[in-house]
Amino acid sequence: MTLKPHPNYTRGELVEVLRNHGINPTHQRIEIAYVLFSRCEHLSADQLLALVNDRNSETSKATVYNTLNLFLEKKLIREVIVDPSKVFYDPNTDVHHHFYDIDTGELTDIDAADIEVSGLPQLPEGVVTEGVDIIVRIRSEQAV
Amino acid sequence: MTLKPHPNYTRGELVEVLRNHGINPTHQRIEIAYVLFSRCEHLSADQLLALVNDRNSETSKATVYNTLNLFLEKKLIREVIVDPSKVFYDPNTDVHHHFYDIDTGELTDIDAADIEVSGLPQLPEGVVTEGVDIIVRIRSEQAV
DNA sequence: TAGCCGAATTAGACACAGTCCAAGTCTTGC
DNA sequence: GCAAGACTTGGACTGTGTCTAATTCGGCTA
Ligand SMILES: [Mn+2]
Ligand SMILES: [Mn+2]
Ligand SMILES: [Zn+2]
Ligand SMILES: [Zn+2]
Fold it and tell me: Per the CB < 8 Å rule, is B139 touching A128?
């Protein structure tokens, strides 16, 4: 069972999904999951920290990082590595790709359904593909 | 005129290429270019710092970063963002893609000549593509 | 309800990539 | 040789992310 980014998950729905992923649903983890899944965005760790503490009581930086790494390990979220100074966390774990606006830093999803990549070379013996990431770097035309 | 990664550039050849890219060829810049272009590898800033100071006299960390950013700006090299903790610098500026071994951290070039990507969505008005990066994350099979 | 115990959280120290700055040194043109 | 600008440098600083040891939480049992 997969969780889709979607506004207004109930606490109970979040608890169930955490359990289904083998994650013990604590207060902080539910709060963090709520922020991740109710905004359908790509957030960095400190954006998340700010949003969580905005809504609610104090959650520490250590817990935010612990939780994000746990969610990654349990494949509840994925990371997008596109900015040399910070990682973005993506609530959408479907195979998909990204536009990255190099001026604004904004990330936008590209559905993988219609995308076809041909001509990739054969992998060496005993090596296996873990995933293919396509990043289309874009910018607004007037900005030279 | 383009520089190809190639062992054993002469000092004179490096000076010429720097000049052709609008870069004033100082001692340190020539040393750094030498290390970048004579090893046909993807290096991080501190690998480069170590290699430069290995061969020769002292070049400071500040100069290595200044120079890498200058080379990037002048399009003498490109950067590969694939590891959340450091940037790799790539002496190959031809359009190409990468295998990234998630266990060893090793980066390998994929020639773009045979690669075809179809199905990318239309870009919004006034937005232009700066480049398409494909990263194939791989690992050795036995490592689960 | 009280007490126990492993799991989770926390503040703050730490690691480390990368930037900034002000002072010093090298080039280049005259 | 001299001045002016360009470049380099050590070291302070910033920001992201990790680690640790101490505390707190929460689910369980008696
Ligand atoms: Mn950089
Ligand atoms: Mn990380
Ligand atoms: Zn995404
Ligand atoms: Zn490359």
Answer: yes
